[in-house]
Design brief:
The chain contains twelve helices and no strands. The protein is mainly alpha-helical and 219 residues long. The protein has one domain. Helix 1 crosses helix 10 and helix 2 packs antiparallel against helix 11. The chain is globular and about 65 Å long. It starts with a helix and ends with a helix.
Length: 219
């Protein structure tokens, strides 16, 4: 996978798996106070992504010991997720996520003086944001594992960079969208229409790249 392909793949998978994060991020930023600061949201969001990526790295190591052709079969996972999203008639209103956001807001502790980065990482309010990201990203692992398994180390670095940059982009946008929370809902609504096709394309590209179709259709 060359640099241009890795960037395109990283951007596609990052947007497809995190486009709806801006809904709860906007809710978080809209509830900042003297005790619950934007840094809790940003650090918590990045920690959540790091946890999901760390779990998914099992795919990268799997790709080192398993034949590429068999690894490519994992591409079926994002295809199944994409098809499920296309067939699903339910409109996810993120009510559970918003409820958790409100819970964090009502359980903030006493005002704190300026925190260091390490103190912010250890703060329970940051952990709550991280928990929301992880619980909202269950499908991410099923997408990341086959992608990482079929990537070389340089390509993996590019893809991870794109994922972290995308999370930073959503944090920036959501912070500035607190005055217009309806826009974040609109972004997520249209993102849900595009994401299934991106996931299906990603799964097919993994299968084709590793020639895994030969295991199913003899050529």
């Amino acid at each position: 996978m060359n640099l241009e392909s890795a960037i395109a793949t990283g951007a596609a998978v990052a947007l497809a798996t995190t486009f709806d994060d801006n809904i709860y991020l906007t809710s978080f930023f809209g509830r900042v106070s003297r005790t619950f600061r934007p840094r809790h949201v940003v650090v918590g969001e990045f920690l959540g992504l790091t946890i999901l990526i760390s779990v998914s790295l099992v795919g990268f190591f799997m790709g080192m010991i398993v034949s590429d052709m068999w690894v490519g079969l994992l591409g079926v996972l994002p295809i199944m997720i994409g098809i499920h999203q296309l067939m699903s008639k339910e409109d996810d209103d993120n009510s559970d996520v918003i409820e958790e956001v409100e819970k964090i807001h009502t359980e903030v502790g006493r005002p704190r003086i300026k925190q260091s980065l390490w103190s912010t990482i250890r703060d329970p309010k940051t952990h709550r944001v991280t928990a929301v990201h992880v619980s909202n990203g269950g499908n991410n692992v099923a997408v990341y594992i086959p992608l990482f398994a079929s990537s070389s180390l340089p390509s993996l670095g590019v893809i991870l960079t794109m994922c972290y940059m995308t999370i930073g982009f959503w944090c920036f946008c959501s912070y500035n969208l607190t005055r217009f929370p309806g826009i974040s809902v609109l972004i997520a609504r249209y993102g849900r229409k595009i994401a299934p096709f991106v996931l299906i394309w990603l799964g097919l590209s993994i299968i084709v790249k590793n020639e895994s179709y030969r295991l199913i259709i003899p050529v």
